[in-house]
Write a structure and sequence with these properties.
Layout: H1 28-39, H2 42-48, H3 53-65, H4 69-80, H5 99-108, H6 115-124
């Protein structure tokens, strides 16, 4: 996308510290997770699911934003596996996450198969929203 924009009178984006490449809507944590994925042993962790959940959520977010389909699918697959704290061992919602947080994640990242689980958990909630 940035390569389609006309160049201004200054040097091109990314040429120096005064003209950084803008990444609107991407947090520092998301960008760091992506760099870790590309430049460290995170790729091997991708296959065995040993990253913490927050890193997978950051990877999911940036992969969705920039349409990295294989990374997005891999992140969803790892999060869906029972080994992460978004879900408990019986495919209910983890106590670390409120159902509303999971609804927001599912909607933000277009993951409709999360919604039935989360809506059931929301119905079981003992406290009003």
């Amino acid at each position: 996308m940035m390569f389609l924009c006309p160049r201004g009178p200054h040097s091109p984006d990314g040429a120096d510290d005064e003209h950084p490449i803008q990444t609107p809507g991407v947090t520092l944590a998301e960008f760091e997770a992506l760099l870790d994925f590309f430049y460290t042993d995170t790729y091997s962790k991708f296959n065995n699911g040993s990253l913490e959940l927050h890193k997978w959520l950051d990877l999911l977010s940036i992969a969705t934003c920039y349409d990295f389909q294989r990374l997005r699918k891999g992140a969803i697959d790892v999060i869906d596996s029972n080994g992460h704290s978004l879900w408990d061992s019986h495919w209910g919602l983890s106590k670390d996450f409120h159902p509303i947080e999971c609804i927001v994640l599912a909607e933000k990242h277009s993951i409709p198969h999360w919604l039935p689980i989360v809506y059931m958990e929301l119905c079981k909630c003992g406290t009003p929203i």
